[in-house]
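Notes on consecutive records. When two proteins share a document, each keeps its own sequence and its own token line. Never mix them. Below: protein one.
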Amino acid sequence: MNKRNYQKELDEIIKKNEASAKRPSLLLHVCCAPCSSYCMEYLTKYFDMTLLFYNPNMDEASEYEKRKNELLRLVKEAGFPVKTVTDPYEPDEFYNAVKGMEDIPEGGKRCFACYELRLGRAAEYAAKEGFDYFTTSLSISPYKNAEKINEIGERLALKYGIKHLPSDFKKNDGYKRSIELSKKYELYRQDYCGCVFSKKGRDDN
């Protein structure tokens, strides 16, 4: 079975919308300013975008606020034409979602449950507010499983009756560009995913 090319699928959707002179609305779940930087630069050319900052996986409220504030600063300083929705910090939602998976290594089922939690919030919000598409900036990271992210997104799209925008934003030098933009705007680049488990993994290595 051939591996899907999510970037190619996204390109085809963009071309189809351009051919019909459509500019769809998109809700982009964002995890942090560095990862969302390239996504905004790229996607605002083709979509009317709203960002959703929903990340209950953050290990501390201070980390949550730091990442949220850096995102808001980036949007303002770069002048990206987006709206931003920020949810309150509710870590119990994350711990409930990953209960019983605390000892699973990074990159496994616990991470997939975290993807589902955050994408689920995005899908639900996008459907409620009448967006054409939803997706997430998570796939830009070389440490995140793009295939699993898209699989979850497509399942949630069916559940909530909203179209999922396929993505693998690390393609076309997307990750490289995010690093360049991070340097340009002097963004805070964290050295762990955000949760207490990823921090422990970082400290143990």
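Protein two starts on the next line and is unrelated to protein one.
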Amino acid sequence: MNCKITRNAAKKINEIMSEEDSQGKILRVVITHSHGSHAHYGLDLDTPGDNDEIVHTDKEIDVLLDKSQDLLDGVKIDYVYLPQEGFVITNPSRGNHGDH
């Protein structure tokens, strides 16, 4: 499985991961809603389970992905400031370039 994290997202994720209550946890990408071949994604902090793969990214941030969820393979995590500040998670490898 693959996951890409942009430079902006890595900066924000590292800030979150440095907080005391996130110690020992790994960033997890979850599917919050899916329909057909399209999914909406969210982030959480979690510990690995039996069905998880720990993906090592080029930003030195590990990400948990559920191996049984094909729509998680190839996700891209970005952090944008406009029009609204926050994380944006897409999966360009599945044709998902943003929420509709």
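For the record: The mean pLDDT is 93.
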